[in-house]
Amino acid sequence: MSETLTHSRARQMALPWLGMLLLFAVPFIVQGLGIPSLLGLATRIAIAALAAASLNVLLGYGGLVSFGHAAYYGLGAYTVGILNAQFVSGDLLFGIIPGTNQLWFTLPAAMLVSGLVAVCLGALCLRTSGVQFIMITLAFAQMIYFLFISLKAYGGDDGLLMRRPNIAPFINLHNSAHMYYLAVVCLIAYVLFCGRLMRSRFGRVIAGQRQSERRMVALGIQTYPYKLLAFVLAGMGAGLAGALTANYAHFVSPDLMHWTQSGDLLIMVVIGGAGRLWGPLLGAAVLIVLETMLSGWTQYWQIIMGPILVLVALYSPQLHRRLDLSA
Amino acid sequence: MLFLLAAGLTLVFGIMGVINLAHGSLYMIGAYAAAWTAMETGSFLLAAIAAIAAAGSVGMVLEMVVLRRFYARDHVDQVLATFGLVLFFNQAMALMFGRQPLFVTLPQALSGTVLVAPGVPYPVFRLLIIAAVIVVAVLLWLFIGHTRIGMLVRAGATNREMVRAMGVPIRGLYTLVFGLGAALAGLAGLLAGPIYSVQVGMGEQILISTFVVIVIGGVGSIRGASIGALLVGGMDTLLRAVVPALLQHVMQGPDADALAGGIASMGIYIVMAVVLLLRPRGLFPSL
Predict the structure, then answer these.
(1) Is ipTM > 0.85 here?
(2) What local confidence, expressed as pLDDT, does residue A22 receive?
(3) What CA–CA distance (Å, rounded) separates A308 from A287?
(4) Which residue of A has its CA nearest to B81?
(5) pLDDT of residue A1
(6) Least CB-CB distance to A147: which of B69, B79, B266?
(7) pLDDT of residue B63
(8) Domain segments of chain A: what residues?
(9) Cα separation of B272 and B208, whole Å?
(10) Of A305, A136, A70, nearest to B81 (Cα)?
(11) Do A131 and B13 lie within an 8 Å CB cutoff?
């Protein structure tokens, strides 16, 4: 009995390491297969997984269904895009902030901007709960979306082109392998950080309020600050993912914050299993591969995607429960 | 217009406890059905019947086939499923009618203007919309508050199991309520057709304003929906009229116009934020 327990524990410990090894090996595998375009797909998956992982903090651990997560993703991307535009033109942003194309400045800046906006909006959104929370996060995300559409100075709804990606010592983001490794390292760092966080007191409170908010309050814990912090951490993660997207695509547009993007992130989390540490990676991989295949097949691919989502919503919770039981 | 949608959605949501993103799709279906019938037959009356019937019946089928399975589920699952439905309906409409927007021409009798006050002409069709909204509001109020079915619906919202235990076929009742909400969306689509263009994705734009209306008004309250719709509609129009002029003083040219448009579309969200600060559950919480 105890032997099998330690055995499964060892397996649990080993699995993430194996997975990480696999992630790092992807560029070599792709090269071995001779299909270099797959690396771009892998990069997109890694970035989307990061964004989904940040949503997982809210949705999976906290049970807070944010339907406006793409806003922070887009904000992160726009931070990079706008800083780059200012750098190229040489003007100061708001008269005080110089533009930059240094990766080690733009990434933290993106997280900072997304985090700040998340503080403001989260403080408002978290006053509601349940369905109102879903609606209000969606509404605020749309608000930011419309704001960026109307920002003609930064491209409006045409988006903003970046002539070249950010630069940093030893990293050349023109090189697709470098780009991939950057995304994967960010993903792993964020996920490990989340895993660590969820074992802390903070994580216990967040998980506790998901199960029963009233009970947490009865224990004498004010849940609001914890939820707000989770909201901000999630926003920052999405901001980081957005910043990576901007560097990967050399292009930012309001489409990044469109509400279907928020929907996609939700789907990734649910496919991967809400509240599973590496679930978002699985979900992102499944969704993006599926999208790529279907859209290559027909222009009206969403007509197939839609019913698939209904089925996913219908059966994935049972499926995950069964997996939990068998594991 | 917003009221019709918000009323339908809040009916479905407040009473049945399902978040329905596909409500915008039903609105779109109503609009397409109306536009198509009007083009084929040239009769506005037939178009009206088609819009309401199409949206209502699609809604009921949807409820029976898909949504029924999600009542007891998490909101996440409901969001996902209805999100999938939105994608499906958008593409289905694109497939059937193409991506070009359809335009609806009004019959002669409705396209003129009348003088509502000396010297103030007003389009007949917009008057018709206002009249329709008032009629629907009164009927809904009578239906929910003063009929036997309305009573059962309210009872079902409070305690579903108890109503079932009393021998009421609650499943059929829910299908009916959902169909009613869908028919309201179809009616909204019909009325929207001649004002906006009928196109794929029209549902989502208005769906989000509808959410704002519901959050402001309080979930599940018809009265809240009407006040919220008035507030949002009024605010939006006011801002669109005033802000560009204000910004012209500060900035110049098309930039100012674009930014003003952005600020005006943000206006309703700011109203929502203020309302939530003061009354976290909306102006007229239902329970």
Answers:
(1) no
(2) 79
(3) 11
(4) A310
(5) 43
(6) B266
(7) 78
(8) 36-326
(9) 12
(10) A305
(11) yes
Phi, psi of A171 (to 5 degrees): -120, 130
| Cross-strand bridge partners of residue A97 | A93
Buried b (16+ CB within 10 A) or exposed e, B247-273: beeeeeeeebbbbbbbbbbbbbbebbb
Sign of CA dihedral A97, A103, A108, A109: positive
Q: Give B30 to chain A, closest Cα distance, Å.
A: 19
Chain A, residues 137-176, CB within 8 A of chain B, namely 138-140, 142-143, 146-147, 149-153, 156
Contact B81 A266 (CB under 8 A): no
Beta bridge mates, A160: A252
Tokens of A115: 């985090």
pTM of the model: 0.79
pLDDT at residue B235 greater than cutoff 50: yes
Distance, in Å, from the CA atom of A166 to the CA atom of A44, rounded to the nearest integer, reads 17
Contact check, Cβ <8 Å, B269/A309 = no
Torsion of CA B215, B218, B220, B225, to 10 degrees: -80
Residue with tokens 């792709």: A30
d(CA B266, CA A121): 14
B147-184 pLDDT per residue, tens:
887 777 777 766 777 777 777 777 777 788 778 878 88
Residue B72 tokens, joined: 């007891």
Taking the CA of residue B106 and the nearest CA in chain A, the distance in Å comes to 31
Give, in degrees to the nearest 5, the angle at Cα B214 between B209 and B219.
Answer: 160
Q: Which of residues 288-307 of A touch B (CB under 8 A)?
A: 300-303, 305-307
Interface contact flag, B269 A140, Cβ < 8 Å: yes
Quick check: B269 and A142 CB within 8 A? yes
pLDDT at B279 over 50: yes
pLDDT for B102 equals 66
Architecture of domain A36-326: Orthogonal Bundle (1.10)
Amino acid (one-letter) located at B66: V
Per DSSP, helices labelled H in chain A are: 2-33, 37-56, 70-89, 103-125, 130-150, 176-198, 201-211, 213-218, 223-249, 259-272, 279-297, 302-326
What's the confidence (pLDDT) of residue A240?
92
Q: B80–A140: do the CB atoms touch at under 8 Å?
A: no
Q: Please list the rounded mean pLDDT of every run of 10 residues in chain A (327 residues).
A: 53 69 78 78 88 87 85 90 82 69 85 92 83 81 83 75 76 81 89 87 86 83 88 92 88 84 86 80 86 78 78 75 62
Nearest CA in chain A to B217: A132
- Which tokens hold the place of A199? 């074992």
State whether residue A263 sits within 8 Å of chain B by CB: yes
Rounded CA gap, A114 and A77, in Å?
10
Read off the tokens for A212. 């029963």
- The yes-or-no verdict on residue B197 having pLDDT over 70 is no
B264 vs A62, which has greater pLDDT? A62
